Amino acid sequence: MKNITLSIPDDLLIKSREYAAKHGTSLNKLVRALLQSTVVPDRKKKLNSLFDHMDKSKVKTNINWTREEIHER
User: Fold this and answer.
1) Which of 18, 59, 68, 71 has its CA 20 to 30 A from that of 38?
2) pLDDT-based confidence at residue 60 (cuts at 50, 70, 90)
3) Which residues touch 27 (CB under 8 Å, ≥6 apart)?
């Protein structure tokens, strides 16, 4: 894991540390969680969107495959 250096105003740093302590975490973990939620795509949201799309499609969902059909080459 890499380290980074941030420059933030003193009052924001104080409030951030207070917020982290109040929520039982460190400032490091708080910043990491905020970056994670901002930068990394929300998998749950994407998955729900995919399921919504599938529900709206006209794809037949009650297909009963045989073992031979599944492994047919």
Assistant:
1) 18
2) low
3) 16, 17, 20
The residue count for the chain: 73
Q: Under 8 Å CB-to-CB from 33, ≥6 apart: which residues?
A: 25
d(CA 10, CA 30): 17
| Per-residue pLDDT tens over the stretch 17-32 | 999 999 999 999 999 9
Identify the residue whose tokens are 């969902």. 61
Q: How far apart are CA 42 and CA 58, in angstroms?
A: 26
Contact 34, 28 (CB under 8 A): no
Q: Is the dihedral of CA 33, 3, 14, 17 positive or negative?
A: positive
